[in-house]
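pasting HNH endonuclease for the record, 90 residues
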Amino acid sequence: MDPGRAAGLANDLGDERALIAVSAKSNRSKSDQDPSKWMPPAEGDRCTYIAQWVAVKTRWGLSVDPSEEDALAENATRCANVQVKIQLAR
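structre below
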């Protein structure tokens, strides 16, 4: 990803799902881990997290590695059918 696009992703104010304020403790626990290594501790938050993760990945055209895909698919089986609207980043 070129530096301009990376900066756009890191500072994306065009989609409220991209930047979410969390506590310092939560931020430390997640760090830079993807869904194959970290999911929200509260089961009720996982479907929202999965939908937001997929939306951001799709918005920015980012790839998903096999372990990440497996974790998303496994956890998504517990979620009702959720439609995710996405506006692609430019």
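The radius of gyration is 13 Å.
The chain has a mean pLDDT of 87.
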